[in-house]
Amino acid sequence: MRPVEIKKDIFWVGAVDWSTIDFHGYSLARKGTTYNAYLVKDEKITLFDTVKAPFCEEFIETIAQVVDPAKIDYIVANHLEPDHAGCLARLVELVKPEKIFVSPMGKRSLEAHFHPQGWPVEEMKTGSTLSLGKRTVTFIETRMLHWPDSMSSYLAEDKLLITNDAFGQNLATTERFADEIDRSKLRAAMSAYYGNIVLPYSSVVEKTLAAIQGMNLDIDMLAPDHGLIFRGEADVRYAIETYLEFAAQKPKNRALVVYDTMWHSTEKMAFAVVDGLMDEGVSARAMHLKSFHQSDVMTELMYCGALAVGSPTLNNGILPGIAGLLTYMKGLRPQNKVAAAFGSFGWSGECVNILKNLLTDMNFEVVEPQVKVKHVPDKDVLAQCVELGRTLGRALKAKL
Question: pTM score > 0.70 for this model?
Answer without folding.
Answer: yes
